[in-house]
Write a structure and sequence with these properties.
Elements (H helix, E strand, L loop, with lengths): L1 H14 L16 H7 L10 H10 L16 E2 L5 E5 L11 H13 L8 E4 L12 H18 L3 E5 H9 L3 H4 L4 E3 L2 E6 L2 H6 L4 H15 L1
Parallel strand pairs: 2-3, 2-4, 4-6
Antiparallel strand pairs: 1-3, 5-6
């Protein structure tokens, strides 16, 4: 009876296209290092800013990418000297839109800038349904963002929010703001995202202090 069951199971696997039960080389699947070795290496990132922007717009290797998933492209002037990173697009697919976008525009105006005179980019061009990013994807997105920053070569980088802060300088806003960090030799400042300032207006004084630090560095 058991032999008939085994033969039937093997026959079903064969019909399904399974042509080998084990590989030629032994592998310890219970060993985490073996699992890591079995995982494919991340794709090499482009070496120019133009190529990276194209890669962000179309590559299936982008973390969180899925067929048909909308992607937000960087906006503004890469040569402006100021790069600003947000965690991901807003629910409508744009970067800092709605009331948060209006507040962001006022924040830029306070330091003598507009959206056209900064380089605004998302850490993740794809928005997640929950608005959160898991650690594995955050690590890869941080690697991509570091290449993006290096290729854009701004004088300073402003990181909005906890997700960007944790991914790129290793700390959330509370532990990272009000002091300078470095990302590949480029000065980086972490501050409070406009969405949070709308719900907690008392934090605007802290954000303004961060913007003053930014102005001093850029001037």
């Amino acid at each position: 009876m058991a032999s008939n069951w085994a033969a039937s199971t093997l026959s079903w696997w064969q019909d399904a296209g399974v042509d080998t039960i084990v590989g030629e080389a032994p592998r310890d699947w219970l060993n985490p290092k073996a699992k890591e070795a079995a995982a494919p290496a991340p794709a090499a990132l482009p070496a120019t800013l133009e190529a990276l922007r194209e890669w962000l717009a179309a590559s299936p290797d982008l973390p969180l990418a899925a067929p048909g998933a909308a992607r937000a492209a960087p906006a503004g002037d890469p040569a402006s000297g100021l790069m600003i990173l947000v965690d991901m697009p807003a629910a409508d697919g744009g970067l800092l839109t709605g009331e948060a976008g209006l507040l962001f525009d006022r924040m830029l105006g306070a330091i003598g800038r507009t959206r056209e005179s900064v380089y605004l980019a998302p850490l993740s061009p794809v928005r997640t349904p929950s608005g959160a990013i898991d650690e594995a994807n955050a690590a890869r997105l941080a690697e991509i963002a570091r290449r993006h920053i290096a290729l854009a070569a701004p004088r300073a980088v402003l990181l909005f929010g906890d997700i960007c802060g944790k991914a790129l300088v290793g700390a959330p806003v509370a532990g990272a703001r009000a002091k300078w960090h470095e990302i590949g030799g480029i000065k980086a400042l972490v501050t409070i995202r406009p969405e949070k300032l709308l719900t907690q207006p008392a934090l605007k004084a802290l954000a303004w202090a961060d913007l003053q630090m930014l102005m001093e560095a850029l001037n």
